[in-house]
Amino acid sequence: MDTFAIPRSVEWRETHITILNQQKLPLATEYIDLHTLEDVYDAIASLKVRGAPAIGITAAYGLALAASHYKAETVHEFHSRLKQDRDYLASARPTAVNLVWALDRLTAAAKDAASVNEAKTALIHEAIRIQIEDEDVCRRIGEHALSLFRPGDRVMTICNAGSIATARYGTALAPFYLAKEKGIELSVYALETRPVLQGARLTAWELMQAGVDVTLITDNMAAQTIKAKGIRAIIVGADRIAQNGDTANKIGTFGLALLAKSFGIPFYVAAPLSTIDLATKTGADIPIEERHPDEVTHLAGVRVAPEGVNVYNPAFDVTPNELITAIITEKGIVRGSYSAALPALFAKEEQHETI
Ligand code: MRU
């Protein structure tokens, strides 16, 4: 079977963008077409497309698509319109840095264009490049991550850092797909991930599609499962990694890292360089998105809490660097002193590019 018969989350169609509506999974595999900047903003804000790299790819295509319709007469006019639209899309969700990373990469790609048409083409090419690169990056993350596991390992994860959260393969889920390709047996224990159930709806669905052994648990079963099932490691994705290694990821990640420490098992973060934000020095500087109370008071549209109850609904938490055993990137596995090691990854990249 083709391990990657998993649908792509985002497709560029020149006149529009087609996305897999992740809100509807696993009950329906529905695709929706995005035609305007407002469609793209709404798809990101309402989690129809979610996961840091997939958000970045969608936003990049969204900006390129919007710009393709500009009636600007001068390059200057074009850039001021582009800046407005860039800022609008950047405000769709605050935590995943891949959103602004992708938008800024696009803006930079069009910066030196000699004409409006050249700028429009540059934006489209750059957005396509971001998606193509992300697939390769995720595969390389998967190869590095797989080197940390032994056949038969049971590994825990939270949220969905899988194929549909990226261009393909995912970050935290990539090693399981590669293991499957190579005939290595690994088992995944997926937390359901309240409030919006990315683990139950998306991770369980995509791993099952690929024939990866996956067991679903609710979030409050993590400690008991680590003990009873002999979980060997925890691996998660990331929405933003500060220069010192502090990592924002789906709410519940921090608790898992504390459990990993308590049980003496490794806690791994798998993420591309596009998720590392050297401008953010520590986790204290990462904005944490708070979402609508309905996500907590309702389950699948049905109210499960009293009307008027106070609700706190942070979508992410920050795991302090000292709880992270290693950060797995496309450039390799980083351990220990993240403040020095993470910037060095970018320095290596520049050297590599200029050789
Ligand atoms: O709110 P979401 O579903 O966008 O949150 C996603 C996560 O927290 C993922 O773990 C993270 O973006 C990594 S996706 C490769």
UniProtKB/TrEMBL annotation:
Pathway: Amino-acid biosynthesis; L-methionine biosynthesis via salvage pathway; L-methionine from S-methyl-5-thio-alpha-D-ribose 1-phosphate: step 1/6
Enzyme class of the recorded protein, top EC level: isomerase
Reaction equation(s) it catalyzes: 5-(methylsulfanyl)-alpha-D-ribose 1-phosphate = 5-(methylsulfanyl)-D-ribulose 1-phosphate
UniProt cross-references to Gene3D superfamilies, sorted A to Z: translation initiation factor eif-2b, domain 1 (1.20.120.420), Translation initiation factor eif-2b, domain 2 (3.40.50.10470)
A Pfam family matched in the record: IF-2B
Top-level taxon: Bacteria
Site residues (Transition state stabilizer), renumbered to this chain: 159
Residues that hold substrate according to the record: 50-52, 93, 198, 249-250
InterPro entries: IF-2B-related (IPR000649), IF-M1Pi (IPR005251), IF_2B-like_C (IPR042529), Initiation_fac_2B_a/b/d (IPR011559), M1Pi_N (IPR027363), NagB/RpiA_transferase-like (IPR037171)
EC number(s) from the headed UniProt entry: 5.3.1.23
Keywords: Amino-acid biosynthesis, Isomerase, Methionine biosynthesis
Keyword Thylakoid included in the entry's annotation: no
Single GO term (MF): isomerase activity
Residues annotated as catalytic: 239
Function of the molecule: Catalyzes the interconversion of methylthioribose-1-phosphate (MTR-1-P) into methylthioribulose-1-phosphate (MTRu-1-P).
HAMAP family registered for this protein in UniProt: Salvage_MtnA
Family: Belongs to the EIF-2B alpha/beta/delta subunits family. MtnA subfamily.
Name used for this protein in its record: Methylthioribose-1-phosphate isomerase
Annotated source species: Bacillus caldolyticus
Gene that encodes it: mtnA
